[in-house]
Amino acid sequence: QVQLVESGGGLVQAGGSLRLSCTASGQTFSSYAMGWFRQGPGKEREFLAAIAWSGRTTYYADSVKDRFTISRDNAKNTLYLQMNSLKPEDTAVYYCAARSGSTSDTLTEYHFWGQGTQVTASS
Question: DSSP for 26-40?
Answer without folding.
Answer: ES-GGGEEEEEEEE-
